[in-house]
UniProtKB/TrEMBL annotation:
Domain of life: Bacteria
4-aspartylphosphate modified-residue sites: D73
Protein name: Response regulator transcription factor
Domain Response regulatory: 22-138
Keyword check for Phosphoprotein: yes
Organism lineage string: Bacteria, Bacillati, Actinomycetota, Actinomycetes, Kitasatosporales
InterPro entries: CheY-like_superfamily (IPR011006), NreC/VraR/RcsB-like_REC (IPR058245), Sig_transdc_resp-reg_C-effctor (IPR016032), Sig_transdc_resp-reg_receiver (IPR001789), Tscrpt_reg_LuxR_C (IPR000792), WalR-like (IPR039420)
Keywords annotated in UniProt: DNA-binding, Phosphoprotein, Transcription, Transcription regulation
Amino acid sequence: MSSVPATSSVPDRRPGGGRPTRVLLADDHTLVRRGVRLILDGEPDLSVVAEAGDGAEAVARARDTDVDLAVLDIAMPRMTGLQAARELSRRLPDLRILILTMYDNEQYFFEALKAGACGYVLKSVADRDLVEACRAAMRDEPFIYPGAETALVRTYLERMRRGEALPVRTVTDREEEVLKLVAEGHTTKEIAELLYISAKTVESHRANLLQKLGLRDRLELTRYAIRAGLIEP
């Protein structure tokens, strides 16, 4: 009687393994999602199995769908890609995360790494870089878009020469959540309901933001949120 080799019941998620990498794609623009999906689904080792139109939906979909990799835009309603990345890193530490963005911005790059992302890809060259970034993520390797390393090293050396420190976050995660929702036009009551906190706590966070950022009112908070990439103009 011939013996049959035992096979593992655990799916192989490595590049070239037993099944394609299952991808969650989050972007608030349907046409962008459609284009990115065409790129990824055109590869035999990648498959988009879930989509989301904002960061909060991305977190929910990641929790109720078996995904290996999340590809997140930065500027999305309700919760940004960076906020979603922080939340996903806490809740699903084995999930790989890539940031796909239009922003060629040093601050966002460092924030993405601190949020738990293992790669940063520009939308302008997604057709060239995204597939390799996905594969690198699944190999546990970081991916930085070509040209970024030189620019980042140059910026770092210039700051060192001037005696400046690397950029640090001015606001906390919760303050950033409140700031984004304020800038999107939500009322104090709506923000309290969305974040499951009291209206008094929302007002406290808003007061702290105004003081920290040296701003005067909702309009200036909104302008700051646009500059910070939390919302689109």
